[in-house]
Design goal:
single chain; about 375 residues; alpha+beta; Beta-Lactamase; Helix Hairpins; Heat Shock Protein 90; 3 domains; five-stranded antiparallel β-sheet; five-stranded mixed β-sheet; 10 helices; elongated
Length: about 375
């Protein structure tokens, strides 16, 4: 009887021991998985997809400040290199959040790229992501800062430009009152007063035109425009000034060319180029206005035989208030806004403006615009 119970008891004992061993193995495996999870660099579920979808900069860092996930925007800004944050300012923000556990939001000014030759303004937010990770998000504010600088420069420049004619008008008005009994002096001061008032009106008009061009709806309703008509109107506006300086205006090239846009703005742009060509020509001279089209592009070139532009100034001629010859421009009433207006008109029409020049030989300014669809009937053509 004892031997009969011995076999079942040994089986039960073996089963219990086996089950215990299995439980120990399973427990050890679970602990191993948890240990792997603790040291793993994988970010929490869903964060990968969010970082990949970010248009702005996003970076996830582990407890050793190693970058475990980075968005394309952060790479484009040059914030991350070799799985580390490049800028010490950002590292300090991350360390502060890690120590305090509190989120931080700050604006930072950083060099852009490895050589630090450009500025990068970022609106940065740093916060904890779970128990181990730190999330850094950065929004680019560089363009906003650049526009603020442009506005400040514009206000400073325009204040300076307006100060001269306004001051002159005041002085001339005072001089007129003292010369009331001298008819010759009255005529002299009145003539100068008229010239300064015209200059003031011209600067004001150019400021209005430039403001309009920088508006989002500058070309809200583009229409089919005849380039022949634009050239004719621009030449007519400059005819008196050209005759006064013995400058011959000659037009040529391909006819019946059209673009979509604003005729008045295109006339202003071409007028400015022709006026500049006349201003910087040495009498007697000739200014040519030519039109060509190729590959869907219309080119309107204004060529003069003037003094030319130094190589170092070619990249700056389209800047607001930039003058190649400041003394000459002031004597002729130039504001320094004309070529800037030309550039904005071309850009608003989907084109650009280019310049070629050689000192002593003259210059050529070329406006390049998309040609109107060939399927559209040009003005004067029969359907």
């Amino acid at each position: 009887m004892d031997s009969e119970w011995l076999v079942p008891l040994s089986l039960v004992f073996g089963f219990v021991v086996g089950a215990g061993m299995v439980a120990i193995v399973v427990l050890a495996a679970n602990r191993g998985q948890r240990a792997v999870a603790v040291v793993s660099s994988a970010v929490p579920d869903g964060v990968d997809a969010v970082i990949d979808a970010l248009e702005s900069a996003g970076v996830v860092l582990d407890p050793s400040n190693n970058v475990v996930k980075v968005s394309p925007g952060a790479l484009a800004f040059g914030l991350v290199s070799q799985q580390s944050l490049v800028h010490p300012q950002l590292v300090r923000l991350v360390d502060r959040v890690r120590r305090s556990g509190e989120s931080i939001t700050e604006e930072v000014h950083l060099p852009r790229g490895p050589f630090g030759d450009a500025n990068l303004y970022l609106f940065v937010r740093v916060a904890r992501l779970g128990a181990r990770y730190i999330l850094l998000l950065a929004e680019d504010r560089t363009e906003a800062y650049r526009l603020d600088d442009v506005r400040r420069d514009f206000v400073a420049n325009i204040s300076h430009e307006l100060k001269t004619p306004i001051g002159a008008v005041g002085l001339l008005a005072e001089a007129l009152s003292f010369a009331a009994d001298d008819a010759d002096q009255v005529r002299k001061f009145a003539k100068r007063l008229t010239k300064e008032s015209e200059r003031l009106a011209r600067i004001t008009q150019e400021i209005i035109e430039l403001s309009r061009l920088q508006a989002a709806d500058a070309l809200a309703k583009p229409e089919l425009v005849s380039i022949d008509n634009v050239i004719s109107l621009a030449i007519d506006q400059n005819r008196v000034a050209a005759d006064a300086q013995s400058v011959q205006l000659v037009s040529g090239g391909q006819k019946r060319t059209t673009v979509y846009g604003d005729e008045a703005l295109l006339v202003v742009a071409l007028h400015n180029l022709i006026a500049n060509a006349i201003q910087y020509s040495t009498s007697p001279a000739r200014v040519g206005i030519g039109v060509s089209r190729s590959g869907g592009i219309v080119e309107i070139a204004v060529t003069d035989q003037g003094i030319g532009i130094p190589d170092e100034d070619l990249d700056r001629v389209f800047e607001r208030f930039f003058r190649i010859d400041p003394a000459r421009s002031r004597n002729t009433g130039g504001s320094g806004l004309g070529l800037s207006i030309v550039k904005h008109v071309a850009h608003n029409h989907g084109g650009d403006v280019r310049v070629w020049s050689q000192l002593g030989s003259g210059s050529t300014f070329t406006i390049r615009l998309p040609e109107a669809n060939d399927a559209t009937t040009r003005p004067g053509e029969e359907q």
